[in-house]
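Handout, tutorial session.
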Amino acid sequence: MALYPRWAGTDAAAPPRPFHDRFAAGRELAKHLSAYANRSDAIVLGLPRGGVAVAYEVARALNL
């Protein structure tokens, strides 16, 4: 069982990234979570290795 995608470690180009960066991903995710904006019972958690940047943008956009 491979731990890396098939293209890892090869000369093949990496697959295209759907977002410019993790902050852009967070802004897009926030659009889909707009029902949770300004709620006192909602929290946003971000895990290290990329999730913190996403969570920051979600929390900022939703005013949490």
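The second record follows below. Compare its token runs with those of the first.
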Amino acid sequence: MADFDGASQTFLAWLQQSGAQISPKIKLEDLRHAQAGRGVVATQDIAEHEVLFRIPRTAILSVENSILSTEIPATTFESMGPWLSLIFVMLYEYLNGDASNWASYLSVLPTEFNTLMFWSEDELAELQASAVRNKIGKEEADEMFMEQLLPVIKEFAGMFFAGDERAQQKAEEMRDECNVTLMHNIASLIMAYAFDVEPASPRKDVDEDGFAEEEEDEALPKGMIPLADMLNADADRNNARLFYDNKYLDMKALKPIKAGEEIFNDYGPLPRSDLLRRYGYITDNYAQYDVVEISMDLVTDMTTAAGIHSEERLEYLEEQEITDTGYDIFASTPFTIQESLSPELIILVESLLLPQEEFERLKSKGKLPKPEKITSKGAEFLHKLIQARSAQYTTTLEEDAKSMNAALPVRLAPTKERRYAMAKAVRIGEKQLLKQAEDALAELMAREGGPSKRQRAVDDEGDVEMGGVEKKPRTST
């Protein structure tokens, strides 16, 4: 406890020496009892729009502020991109130990992670058929480290290892398992805590309230913003937001905050599967953003089994930007097909089911079926598709719900049991969406009275009614 609190106080002292201004109405608190690490809590009542803390841009751990940016060509950083560049810089600062300008900051960052990258095979197996298992990317990260990062370290070994006479040997040793693990740790820190930092002279407009959105915009440099990244996140209790200025970054209250209340940032509309993948925890407040993915492979397997020849049609749909590796079913309240099923999935299915003559006609006019016009055949195929997707999970929704009721609260369980419980909550959320979709499609089929009862709408020229589609964003990968 003393070391934990001592590290916090040393960090805050360093931050203020670096030019940060911290309101006396807040404090950095030990929240490990709630499995939340450090968090920021109000010690006095805080008014809406009040500045909680102000961080100078010079205190951000970034490529721009690193000494490496003055010694290594800008083209090298550009070729690595924002993610790998920040990994490179943070690796340098970590290896510098106490000599690093950010040593006090690095000492309070997590060293153990619950993100999926660090789960064992038996823990990952608890996710069953969740598509998030294919988005962990450990092998891809290993390849990126070996093929892109290590060559840069070797090329600039003298600088990277501060003139050490063993610099080249140390560069070779970066291939060792312990150093690759360090790279994964740093990458996980960046994924969980880094911000896309708006430049001092914005290259894009902020919104009318002055907010700078935290978007996955690869054109923006990434940076670790001390203290800002220690706010925990909550979709419903979000009460603070980061604002950008030419010289400072201000964290401001979005609403009045009472003394004793925790101060929360927000990650945006992330499904719990991505919350677990990126941040290593879940909360029920993010269930409203849950999704379940239907893979393109499952769609093509089912069309092949049904004797539907789809190659030509898939080529056309690819030209129309309809094909994808997978399609999401989104949570909605109340659940509706139009709100929850990916429009592209509906267009894909309806296009594959068209009689050849109708397909040729729409192709000649560059048209697409309208996603709001689901035929009985389309509903029937989608219903079977949803059932096939549900069957990919090894337990049923009912079995999961029953065993979940007997489990310990997630935050109170030991690490392995906690991971099992979080995985189960994720897969339950996905199965609930599949059940809702299956029921809604069954209701649609019953209402339409079967495949022979529903006719396709036609346009004024006698063609199948077609139209464009507004794409819903896929979940992050």
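Points raised in discussion: Confidence is low (pLDDT under 50) at residues 214-218, 451-470.
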